[in-house]
């Protein structure tokens, strides 16, 4: 029986970052840059105003705290315009936020530090303005290139595109970016007892939940899920479904990998390539298959065979498939974040395997608490839907009790976790 880490290393060794594509920036969200991005321009391209106010010479306002100077307002400039006037001694130009600072000016005085409001109330023309406060040289002026200078490295290869990076690329005038493409993951369920969702359920049949849950997990990991459907327990159908996955980067199957399953599933997989069927020292998700399916005129297709029980299938993908998808995306961090917490209920370990218990995690008074979400059977999918973490009971412990410290894998590290 393999340890979890042994199975992980054997699987992940077969994956590497995929080839690259040029995509519109908005389609790059969640993808890693394939090359460095350097700036073709200064940001901002010109010095601009950080406030609505008056562009002035600092020498004219240096004494404003003692004797409020009165300056002639020679023009106004708004964002998107460049003034053709030059600020000289005793002059000012009314300026709006984001507008380029006129030639000659070196400081911007906000409206509220002038007598503009009084003039407006009195109906006095704004051809002059009184400055009521002295400000440091350069106040409220954003220098050209303050954010980015032309030729500067802005985003390094490997950077994952988030909303902020999308904004940076757009600010540089870049409509597209070269990124590592999303892996296509074919998802296949096997079994005569399965019925496709939406069809009438015959006696003795169950709906195929694994296709939906595993495909959703593929998408959540950043991959593109391609649902093949259901392969029946016969040779021809299994071959047909495997052929339908020939254009994928990874084929994920569920069921047909444990000792009690039909031998024909294993036979077909072994006929098509080099397969390994393992028992992994974990609960749930003990049975696991991995190997390479041969393809004509292409590299072999990696196949990850998950157990058939719905929780086992999803947990096995979480532990092994998610990392494979992330490696193909060019990610360095393959594992979920973990925290140390306190159990509020017991975890039982009956057969010397590492247990991944489904728990609801919350933070109270600076401490993480993990509460089991109910029955932990591998068929109880609702207990996983209630969980935002997996609490670990090591293989050599028969149980962990309430009040004991526990390591927790965080499945949902976001605003839904009570921090």
In a few lines, what is going on in this structure?
The chain has 419 residues and is an alpha/beta fold. The chain contains nine helices and 27 strands. The chain has four domains: 4-18 and 182-328, MoaB/Mog-like domain (Molybdenum Cofactor Biosythetic Enzyme, Chain A); 24-43 and 147-180, Molybdopterin biosynthesis moea protein, domain 2 (Alpha-Beta Complex); 48-142, Beta Complex (Molybdopterin biosynthesis moeA protein, domain 3); 338-410, Beta-clip (Beta Barrel).
The CATH architecture of the largest domain would be 3-Layer(aba) Sandwich
Q: Count structural domains.
A: 4
Spans where pLDDT lies below 50 across 5 or more residues = none
Enter the CATH topology name of the largest domain.
Molybdenum Cofactor Biosythetic Enzyme, Chain A
The termini sit apart by 38 Å
CATH superfamily of the largest domain: MoaB/Mog-like domain
Number of strands: 27
Structure annotation, total helices: 9
Overall pLDDT score: 94
- Oligomeric state: single chain
Q: Order of strands across the widest beta sheet?
A: 15-12-16-20-19-17
Helix content: 10-25%
Radius of gyration: 32 Å
Question: Tell me, what's the shape?
Answer: elongated
Largest sheet: 6 strands, mixed
Structural class: alpha/beta
Would you mind describing this structure in some detail?
There is one protein chain. This protein is an alpha/beta fold. The chain folds into four domains: 4-18 and 182-328, MoaB/Mog-like domain (Molybdenum Cofactor Biosythetic Enzyme, Chain A), CATH 3.40.980; 24-43 and 147-180, Alpha-Beta Complex (Molybdopterin biosynthesis moea protein, domain 2); 48-142, Molybdopterin biosynthesis moea protein, domain 3 (Molybdopterin biosynthesis moeA protein, domain 3, Beta Complex); 338-410, MoeA, C-terminal, domain IV (Beta-clip, Beta Barrel), CATH 2.40.340.10. The protein is 20% helix and 32% strand. It is built from nine helices and 27 strands. A six-stranded mixed beta sheet has the order 15-12-16-20-19-17, sandwiched between helices. A five-stranded mixed beta sheet has the order 7-4-6-5-8. Strands 21-24-23-25-27 form a five-stranded mixed beta barrel. Strand 19 and strand 20 form a beta hairpin. It is elongated and about 95 Å long. The two termini are 38 Å apart.
